[in-house]
Amino acid sequence: MSEFWLISAPGDKENLQALERMNTVTSKSNLSYNTKFAIPDFKVGTLDSLVGLSDELGKLDAFAESLIKRMAQSVVEVMEDAAKGKAQENLLANGVDLTSFVTHFEWDMAKYPAKQPLPSLVDTLAKQLAQIETDLKARTAAYSALKATLDSLNQKAQANLFTRTLSDIVSKDDFVLDSEYLVTLLVIVPTQNYVQWQKTYESLSDMVVPRSTKLICEDKEGGLFTVTLFRKVIDDFKARAKENKFMVREFYYDEKEITREREEMARLLTAKKQQYGPLLRWLKVNFSEAFIAWVHLKALRVFVESVLRYGLPVNFQAVLLQPHKKSSTKRLREVLNSVFRHLDEVAAASMLDAAVDIPGLQLNNQDYYPYVYFRIDLSLLD
Prior knowledge:
Helix content is 48%, strand content 15%. It is an alpha+beta fold. It has two domains: 3-136 and 290-377, subunit c (vma5p) of the yeast v-atpase, domain 2 (Up-down Bundle), CATH 1.20.1460; 178-258, Alpha-Beta Plaits, CATH 3.30.70. The strands form three sheets. Strands 2-9-1-10 form a four-stranded antiparallel beta sheet, sandwiched between helices. The protein has a four-stranded antiparallel beta sheet with strand order 6-7-5-8. GO terms for molecular function: proton-transporting ATPase activity, rotational mechanism.
């Protein structure tokens, strides 16, 4: 599973023995893989100061998770369809896969000095994540606008013969141009009426140039034919053609406009290629930074909640559990509740009143357990 449970219990002898019992039971029953999760000893002021910090950390945790999910989705959207299956390969943290990073987590003392006051560390993480989000919006907006324009042009090129762009189909040689008397029309003929068209187009109106029709392109419903006739019979020809289920496509061949459309498509394709590489590299680098910051936030939340729950002096042990399979999570929860029931009999019995407001704990009823608990879900592309 790509889900982890980050828990903590007091660090006294009784509870360390409880952790050992937990490890024994979960190992024998093949419920989870457990490892110690090292968290530094941070500077703690008063417990009251941690209550507000707990609120802030909860909001920042949710923001960080949302941000990395958006970044993961951006990687999928930026990569070509054929490469989407490889998107996960680009979602790394410090050059390793996310599971390895979480299970071997070490606090980055250089980037987030543990000697700094907790509010300062939280502020550093908040500013870092906010800047990444700002840059993400700017970079992806430019690329998305470019991609949307290209997608629109491609859709027009793949539409049916009534609406699709014709700049990539027709050529100057398909038309009689600059003639005072003659004009070339484009006619859409259903596939089943090809023979009828060939037999009757010359007689649909007076002054149709014999043998002037040519098939330009086809789709699954029909074909686009040219026909040349005198300008003064255009309206009569259109009316007679419609009676025979031949539809004249309104089109005027403008070489300058067609050249402009082709050049615009080429320019957009070039611009997309030029932006693709730098954007993907930026996403990979900053996804890593955001993910690392997120896991540090989880560590801070465990620290703060553990101090609020178990009191001062700071003394607790954090453990990372990786449930082996979805079907075992219920049994794993029962084991944890049994082992740590003594920490909070009410929570263990799942009888906590939903209306009770627990200072410093911004958790709903379903997330409150006898032990400190936070979930890390690495299913970022689901």
